């Protein structure tokens, strides 16, 4: 599976990890599968794109479509954070586009940050001591 995830209920965190070649189908599938769950509403999110080789989107509008879908699935009662670890220029650029589109969505309650390193992302999320295995 191109995006694997685990849920850390103690830290109120969803940790996703992309691998290989990601398509918009993979990304939208992850979004719908994880964020339709009632037990993760208001959780922070960390997406690690370090092992992604390439991202294939049907069109440039898919980033905007994803931002709209994601914002519509945000928990309305609590703000949370979403950190994207994107070491490659491709992933970083697409992550920044997503961040900007999310900021423009009135219904968005997540603060998005895009980072080159895991340490930066963990600091943004306020997580000390790294992630459990």
Q: What order do the helices and strands come in, and which of them pair?
A:
Layout: E1 3-8, E2 13-23, H1 24-35, E3 44-56, H2 61-73, E4 80-85, H3 89-104, E5 110-115, H4 118-125
Parallel strand pairs: 2-3, 3-4, 4-5
Antiparallel strand pairs: 1-2
Strand order of the largest sheet: 1-2-3-4-5
CATH class: Alpha Beta
Number of helical runs? 4
Overall shape: globular
Helicity level: 25-40%
Mean pLDDT: 93
Q: From the coordinates shown, what is the CATH architecture? A: 2-Layer Sandwich
Strand content is 25-35%
Task: Describe what you observe in this structure.
It is a single chain. The protein has 133 residues and is of the alpha/beta class. The radius of gyration is 14 Å and the shape is globular. Helix 1 (24-35) packs parallel to helix 2 (61-73) and helix 2 crosses helix 3 (89-104). Strands 1-2-3-4-5 form a 5-stranded mixed beta sheet, sandwiched between helices. It starts with a strand and ends in an 8-residue tail after the last helix. Strand 2, helix 1 (24-35) and strand 3 (44-56) form a beta-alpha-beta unit. It has one domain (3-125): STAS domain (Transcription Regulator spoIIAA). Helices cover 37% and strands 32% of the residues.
């Amino acid at each position: 599976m191109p995006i694997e995830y685990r849920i850390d209920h103690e830290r109120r965190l969803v940790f996703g990890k992309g691998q290989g070649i990601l398509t918009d189908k993979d990304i939208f599938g992850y979004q719908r599968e994880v964020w339709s769950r009632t037990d993760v509403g208001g959780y922070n999110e960390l997406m690690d794109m370090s092992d992604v080789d390439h991202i294939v989107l049907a069109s440039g509008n898919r980033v905007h479509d994803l931002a709209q879908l994601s914002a519509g699935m945000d928990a309305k009662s609590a703000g949370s954070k979403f950190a994207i670890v994107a070491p490659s220029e491709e992933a970083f650029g697409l992550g920044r586009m997503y961040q900007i589109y999310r900021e423009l969505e009135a219904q968005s309650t997540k603060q998005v940050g895009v980072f080159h390193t895991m340490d930066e992302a963990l600091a943004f999320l306020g997580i000390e001591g790294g992630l459990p295995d």
